[in-house]
Amino acid sequence: MPSSKSWRHFLVTTSLALATVLATYAGSAFADVDKVTTSPGTITVPARGLATINIVWRVGTTGSVARNVTSSTAELKLNNSTIATLGGNLSTTTTLNNGPETVLLRESYVFNAALARRIAASPAGSLQITRQFGDGGRVATGQVNVYSGSSNAGPLAVRRIDLAFENSARTDVVSEDDVVHAIADISFRSSGILKGEWRIVEPSASLGSSGGRVLRVIRQNLVSSGEGRTRIVSPALPTLNSGLHLVSFVVEDTSIEIPILRYFVLDNVGTSIETEPGELIILSPGDDVGLDQNTIFKWQSVAGAQAFQIEIFNKDEEVPLTGKIVPATESKLTLSPLSFEWLTPGNEYTWHLRAFGVGGKLLAQSKRQSLYLK
After folding, report:
1. Which residue in 232, 247, 280 sits closest to 174, CA to CA?
2. Phi, psi (5° rounding) for residue 134?
3. How far is Cα of residue 352 from the mean position of the Cα atoms in its chain?
4. pLDDT for 10-55, tens place per residue?
5. Domain 269-374 has CATH 2.60.40.10
6. Which entry of 69, 148, 263, 367 is 20 to 30 Å from 90 by CA?
7. Domain spanning 31-148: CATH superfamily
8. How far is CA 6 from CA 14, 16, 20, 26, 107, in A?
9. What is the pTM (predicted TM-score) of this model?
């Protein structure tokens, strides 16, 4: 039987050892992020204008001590590829006490029309906003699907209509009797009968006409379990009369704005294409300036011109993104809101202006200049 003194020494030593073990265990107490969900799970942004979306990230954690739950940034993914980073650091502290806990983190993003167009044009018809959350242990990823257009449920919903000519241009200059077609690239959701009409406003009609003459009525069954796309080719567009023509594909039962293509038919009388084009002098705007919807493009007149065409390009590319064409009776223009949908704020672009005469002859062309969208 040990002495009382020895026994007390044993108890003290054992207590100290046990305290050390418990302290070590507490220092390594676990805390893991189990899952991340979002509210809402899907978001639809309008195909036009700016849209603010609000997301609540619901982060589920399990552990025995409080930890700091963080996410450094959000990724914007299109077709499984990251195209941009959004927002900044999100952080909050748990109050765990040997049990599960869900913490909420909130943030907002602003989507512009150019991004909405990219969403609608993607094969999947959507993009994803993803975030990884961690607390020093296990991490988990949350995701929000973002669609462009109208609601995701219900009957056939036309989300967006993009118009272009067969050469991918959105303005064109042609000669009399040329064969010209337009193509409507339509993004839609669900299934149903598409009811549409190809319409034309010719030089003999008022350019302010909202209806125009019907070229062809379209009735086409569209089927999709989710997002779908289809292309509809116009009949041959009129090219018998010289002057400015407006063409559109009008869809019934939709609230989206209908885009309009502009093409100019040039008179073939007195055609001559031997001479090189001259330089077209731009009066405004200057080179490397900011562009907005109030920007006015002005130029010097060109003898013999029938039409002027502005084209805007991605930097170092030759296929125009957007543009506008006007009769030679005008010496200035502003871009339409639909033209701005092809441009992204902060991006740099190049542009030029061209003057056309009879028979499609290029009379004059300006030097390429730079601009950026404000």
Report:
1. 247
2. -150, 165
3. 24
4. 444 444 444 443 344 344 445 578 889 988 887 877 766 677 889 9
5. yes
6. 148
7. Immunoglobulins (2.60.40.10)
8. 12, 16, 21, 30, 64
9. 0.56
